[in-house]
Each structure stands twice: as structure tokens, then as C-alpha cells.
Amino acid sequence: MKVSPIISYNYQPKHNASQKNSLSFSAHYDKYAKHIVNMHGDGVIYGSGSIKNYSHLFRNLKFYQIMPFLLDKKFPNGAVIYDYACSAGYEASSIVMAMKDKLPNEKVEKFMPVYAFDCNPQIVEEAKKYKLKLNGSELKSFHFFENIKKSDFLVPTKIDRNGQVINFATRNLTNNIIFDNGNIFEDLESGKLSKKPCVLFIKNTWQFLTDYGSRKLAKSLYDNLKSKSLVFIGDEDIDKFYGMTTDKVLLDTGFKAVEDRFDITYKQKKNRTLYNRITLFEHKNLSDLCFEKP
Length: 294
Prior knowledge:
Elements: E1 36-38, E2 43-45, H1 61-74, E3 81-84, H2 90-102, H3 105-108, E4 114-118, H4 121-127, E5 131-134, H5 136-140, E6 154-159, E7 165-169, H6 171-174, E8 177-181, H7 184-190, E9 199-201, H8 211-224, E10 230-232, H9 246-253, E11 256-257, E12 261-269, E13 277-285, E14 290-292
Parallel strand pairs: 3-4, 3-9, 4-8, 9-10
Antiparallel strand pairs: 1-2, 5-7, 6-7, 10-14, 11-14, 12-13
């Protein structure tokens, strides 16, 4: 039996598909997926909707400060963006909002819409409601952006019993994200993706694949993506504490780490009333999280 290193908060009963899941399995994934042991002693669990991994808007704020500039540099004429294991739409929404904050509209339009796929039909139907539940830290994330406001994208309606604010997306999001069912293994092999260089977000999901599944996915990406395509992975995909080495898997397959560096400025509003700002200058790249097909 293959035991996942995932800790107990990743467990969620199958029937609760409305929760934020970063990866939802289906039968198509079973041969590539790890068996997950629930630390509460309920035994081995796997299958559609059985994994709950914490997900929220702007997961890794530094990533979203750099990513739009990288895409603009690599694809001056735009490119198709795919977000796999999209769950309820938090990552796809983050991509759109970050792009609109950092780039002028005429450049952003060359990358829209974002095609967001999940293999769990229930979670896709949830995403199509364009309803996001945000906690306090997620709402504060908007302080790191200079050219967008939360009200441009989200309209608060009520607070649920867990203290999360339920927001409905405005047209700035609904017109720029297309949700659908998708299986990345099948989509790559069937030639469903763009025939031109494209951008894939496959973030914080590799941890749920077996070693064979990870290598299979990396090779399929390498074999089927056009040259100059980019693959983004997440922090948890390279978390050495859990033995995650997705970066090495991609490099061993033939991908190259993206070394482009950017001078970025963070201007964070410290106080909503006074709007005091702290400016942090950093020289950053995404070499740990972004890989290019040569």
C-alpha cells in the first residue's frame, strides 16, 4: 500500500464537494494516485472529492507579483492559459486578477480567457457558480495590489457560519474564466491543448501522485507540449519536508528552469484608513516553480 505524506487536514468526506479542493480525483486518476491514509484512523481513502487541501486566493503572493511580468516577457503576443485541478476557481481567479493588476488591458486580453479544468464534475459545477468564500487573510491580500480593487471583481453577499465572506464574481472574472471537466493525462495524449506554445498551471497537486504518476505526467507534458511552453508548479510540489521533488522530476524529463529575474516592488497598505505603505524591493525569479519546454 502506498502511503501519502499528506497530513490529516487534507481529509474530507467524498460527499462534500463544495469545499475548496486543490485536486479532485476520478477513476481516470486512480492508477496514478497515491492511497491516502486518514490520520484519524478511518482507513485508506481515495476517489473523487476525497482530498481537501487548503486553497485560497493569491496563494504565494510573491508568485503572483512576478508571474504576469514573466508571461508578458515570454509571450508578447499572448498565449493560452490552462489551469488544471482548478477546484472551485480560486487559482484561476487569482491568475486573472494578478494579470489585470500588473499589465495593461491590451496585454491581458491576449491571454484571456483562462481555461480552468477539474476532473470532478461536482467541483466544476461549483466553480461555475463563480462564488468564492474568503477569509480575513484572503481579503487582506488585495492590499498588495496597486491597480485593482476587490470590488472590481467580487461582490460580498453574506458571512457564512465559519466567518467566511461569500462573494459573487463580477464580469471581470466571469468573462475571463471558462470552467470545464478535464483530465490532464487524457487531454495531453489526445492533443486537446493548444498547438502553439501555452501556459499550464499544475500547482500543489503533484503530491497526490505516485512516483510513477509524477514521471508519467512529466513525460506526457514534455512529449505533447510545444517548445517554449511553460509549466507552473506550487510550493508544496517542492516541499522537501514531505519528500516532494517535482522540480527534479521535470528537470530530469528535459524541462529547463526559468531563470528570468525581475525587480519587483511590493506596496502594501498597512492600514485601511491611513493607507500607510511599506515598499520592499526584491530581485526575484521563479526558477523553483516555473519550467520551460525547450
